[in-house]
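Sequence in, structure out.
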Amino acid sequence: MNLSVHQLRLRNFVTFADQDIPLHAQGLVLLKGKNLDEPWRGRNAAGKTLIGDALLWLLQGETSRDITVDSVIGKNGRHCSVEAEIEIGKARITVGRYRKHPDHGTSFKIFSGEGDVSHRRMDDTKDRLDSVIGCSANLIRISCFQYGDESKYFSRMKTDERAKIIDEIVGASEANIPARYKTVNTEIRALESELMRLESEKITLQSLINGD
């Protein structure tokens, strides 16, 4: 299934006041940045990494630098939001995470052509997005956000969390492991039978060659 993020919308997120970031069909993008608040810092602290953090906060409710709770709300208001327009196959949805928003409160929501299709609980909505995208936010995080301390994120996971990530990468799960085991076992038996047939054929041919 093809998945494409068309646009990322940041509203009062940390240092971003109001920013729309087009992502569709952009190819490889080099972010250079320019610090307008503190020009003497040049390109440092210009918000380059924060763009990745915005997407991470949207998908998982946290950032690579542990900017959490009300710390994500910038100085330009009392609430913030990050939204993304995502195309999945032929369908397009809008995913949004909000903090003290006047309309959405503190929530994580999914909108489609049918309107708000979110669950009442944020965790349930996140699980639904994971199923639609086809991978979990954790997998997205360790695959795409390998900067700073994020490179150590996988090693800091608990054993069962790491196992789930590995299962997801190889396409396994608790639900289908027994079925996969049975299939592999059947394939092994078929290969063993074929090997025995070939060995028998080899012996027969060897006998013919030797004139027995």
